[in-house]
Amino acid sequence: MKFFAAITTLVFAASAALAAPSTTTTVTVSYDQTYDNPSGSVNTVSCSGVLAGYGDFGNLPGFPNIGGAAAVAGYDDPNCGTCWQLTYNNTSVNVLAIDHAGAGFNIALSAMNTLTSGEAVSVGRVNAQAQQVDASLCGVN
């Protein structure tokens, strides 16, 4: 009976943890026009192994809202293909993590223009709120 109670408690605790919203953190966000190229090869990014079937950036779900994330530590990291909602001045964009970024996020210029209301080039880098969200919000099934 104690074993059953322990398993039940563990299951409920795990369910609660999974249901809890992910935390929001302040991160730096910059852009790299490499990610804007629909013909860019997925072989050039850290997540190339898991993305091999897509061939080019333009075939990725949610393109051009793609880029590098510090959460991707290296080649085919488990965080490859995760979706992140970035929010700046009450404007949000969902970005698919396909590469490593040294800090925060380094995303396509077009995605950063969405985030900054067309001001990406003039601001260069912003501090935004980041929260991991369900991958379906980035078009991943």
Explain the overall architecture.
The chain has 141 residues and is of the alpha/beta class. It has one domain (24-136): Barwin-like endoglucanases (Beta Barrel), CATH 2.40.40.10. Helices cover 23% and strands 28% of the residues. It has 4 helices and 6 strands, in the order αβαββββααβ. A 6-stranded mixed beta barrel has the order 1-5-2-4-3-6. The longest helix has 18 residues, at 2-19. It is globular and about 35 Å long. It starts with a helix and ends in an 8-residue tail after the last strand. The model is unreliable at 1-20 (pLDDT under 50).
CA distance, first residue to last residue? 40 Å
**Portion in helices:** 10-25%
Indicate the low-confidence ranges by residue numbers. 1-20
Task: Provide the residue-averaged pLDDT.
Answer: 88
**What oligomeric state do the depicted chains represent?**
single chain
- What's the helix count? 4
Q: Beta fraction of the residues? A: 25-35%
CATH architecture: Beta Barrel
Protein structure class: alpha/beta
- Which fold name fills CATH's third level, the topology? Barwin-like endoglucanases
Give the ordered list of helices and strands.
HEHEEEEHHE
- Specify the biggest β-sheet: 6 strands, mixed, barrel
By DSSP, the count of extended strands is: 6
- Overall geometric form: globular
Q: Which homologous superfamily in CATH is the superfamily?
A: RlpA-like domain
How many structural domains in the coordinates?
1
Q: Using the coordinates above, name the CATH class.
A: Mainly Beta
Spatial ordering of strands, largest sheet: 1-5-2-4-3-6
